[in-house]
Request: fold
Amino acid sequence: MNLLIGFCVLLTLAVISVLVFLMRKVASNAALPVTAEWIEDLSLDKYRPMLRILDEGDIEFLQSQPGFTPGMAAKLRTQRTQIFRGYLKSLETDFARTCSAIKLVMTQSSHDRPELAEALLRQQITFACGMVSVRARLLLYQWGICRVDASELVRLFDSMRVELRSLVPAASNMVA
Amino acid sequence: MPHADLAGILQALALVGILALTLRLFLTGLWRHYPVFFWYFLFRIPNTSWPLVVKNGTFRYEELWISTEPISWIFHILVVVELYRLVLYKHKGIYSLLRWAMYSSVTLAIGLSILSLLPKIQPQASADTRILNYWFATGRGIDFALAIFLLFILLFLSRFPVQLNRNTLLHAGLYTLFFFGNALVLFVRTLAGSSSPYFPQINVAGQLISIAAIYCWVFLLNKRGEEVKRSFLPTFSVRHEEMALRQLEALNATLLRASRK
Reply:
């Protein structure tokens, strides 16, 4: 019986903690760094180097050069992986902010947009799965086991970026 | 202090709180925003008064409790529906998303609630006790499902830049605690059984949770809590405003030229 009461007390404390956390989060939902400039500045150009930074062609070319050692190849892979991780982090942040901006526009809308809601959910899930896959492949890439392709992630980000611009026409007009 | 006296004091304290809350809702005009909530507490005035005059453990007490409890369950469901509709009404743009979140939450809540009902009702119990046990189980199931549903809806809303007013947020939090507390007390009571030495303490715990929620509503609900801060829309700089004005002027000029022809 004491064990049961102890369990109930712990469960109540856990529920209260979750509740306080969620209520604080809902209450602080207002602040979003979304400006027309930010939407306008969203660009794919930033991620173009990321798509070829892990290109095996560079390493294959260097390996064919005299004096190039496997140690140097490993060092190069590590350096490029670190840079790639930086890009990945930035892509993740931009994608999350783009999604937040779309959500903001949706919440302010007076009309229901089920197709947009569906697309948003699908893209978020696909992006999250893609991110896990790329991170796992990146680990293997460091040991030269497999290749990494982030083009799908960039494509997903691009589709969300286009969607956001179509939702905030003022920003797209300015770009045009 | 004997348990019967303590229970009586708590019951009287709950009645005072309910009267104060009903009066407050009426005087502040908040009853128009939360009509089901208001009617629920109006119903609770006689429903909290009769246990003060009818002796606990008598057939009459049992009969009254069995007949009034289903009304409480219906009100519990309706107040949550009211809260959900308040959130939905303010955010038509995410109507579909909220509806999907509701379907998933209801499915999960009912599933978890059924799991919580697994501790079996003793088949050898008398018919009266069996009805009481069924009533306890149903009440527990409904309250637990509602608490889980509210938690999931809050979780969903926390992922969206929605702005809820203070009263709605307070309602969601207090309802969750209220329903969860009720469900937990009923759960422990079912497991412990009425012959348990802890039975009076469990009943007191249930009363305390209910009283705490009532007084939180009394002191924290107010008219100002209905105000929502200004929405944070994408902001536009002076440069963008000038550009928009130039576009409008160009459009005007084109229209003027067209009208002269």
Notes: Chain B touches chain A through 46 residues (CB under 8 Å). Confidence is low (pLDDT under 50) at residues 230-235 of chain B.
